[in-house]
Design brief:
The chain is α+β, with helices and mostly antiparallel strands. Helix content is about 25%, strand content about 40%. The strands form two sheets. Strands 3-4-5-8-7-6-9-10 form an eight-stranded antiparallel beta sheet. The chain has a two-stranded antiparallel ribbon with strand order 1-2.
C-alpha cells in the first residue's frame, strides 16, 4: 500500500475488488429503493378503486384535484367562485364526480349528489356535490380537507329524479403525498 500526499493508494487488484464491492452495494441499494417504490405504489393501487365504479345502472368516475391548482386560474374563471370559492390554506382538494347511464352511456346531469370523506381516526366531512358545467358537460363536486397522506374512505350518494332510492358507492382512496 502506497501513500501519496497523505492519501492511501491501493494496488490495482485491491482497487478492482473495492469497485466491485461498491457496485454491489449500489445495486442492492437501488433494488431496495425500487422494491419500496413498487410495493408502495402497489399498496396505493390496491386501495384505489378501478374506474368506473358501477352502481344501480350508473357508472361513476371521480378525480381529486389540489385546490392550489384551482387558485392559479384567473380571477374571472368560473372555478374561482363555485362552491363558495376556492378554500385557502393547505390540504384543500376538489372532489369531482362524473355520472353516466350504464346502458346508454349518456351523462347524468340531473341527479342530487352528496359525498363524505373520512380520514382514518378523524371526523367525517359531509358535502353536497354541486352540479358544475364545463364545456357543455356537467359533473358534480365540492371541496374537502385532505391534509395528510394515507387512506380515506369516500362515500358518494346519488339520487336520480323520479327514483325514491339512493344509490351509494363506498370506496377507499389512498391519498398520495404532494
Amino acid at each position: 500500500m502506497n501513500t501519496s500526499n497523505g492519501n492511501v493508494v491501493l494496488p490495482a487488484s485491491h482497487r478492482h475488488a473495492f469497485a466491485i464491492a461498491i457496485g454491489k452495494r449500489a445495486c442492492a441499494f437501488t433494488a431496495f429503493i425500487l422494491l419500496g417504490l413498487t410495493f408502495g405504489m402497489a399498496g396505493a393501487a390496491g386501495v384505489n378503486p378501478e374506474q368506473p365504479i358501477r352502481l344501480d345502472g350508473m357508472e361513476l368516475f371521480f378525480g381529486i384535484v389540489p385546490a392550489e391548482i384551482l387558485r392559479g386560474h384567473p380571477r374571472e374563471h368560473e372555478e374561482q367562485t363555485m362552491h363558495g370559492g376556492v378554500p385557502r390554506g393547505r390540504g384543500a382538494h376538489h372532489l369531482i364526480v362524473s355520472l353516466f347511464d350504464a346502458k346508454t352511456r349518456a351523462r347524468i346531469t340531473d341527479a342530487t349528489v352528496s359525498g363524505s370523506m373520512t380520514e382514518f381516526g378523524m371526523a367525517t366531512q359531509n358535502q353536497k356535490l354541486e352540479a358544475m358545467s364545463f364545456g357543455g358537460t356537467v359533473s358534480y363536486g365540492n371541496y374537502f380537507s385532505m391534509p395528510t397522506q394515507g387512506p380515506y374512505e369516500i362515500v358518494i350518494n346519488v339520487r336520480r329524479p323520479g327514483d325514491s332510492r339512493t344509490a351509494t358507492a363506498r370506496f377507499q382512496y389512498w391519498h398520495p403525498v404532494r
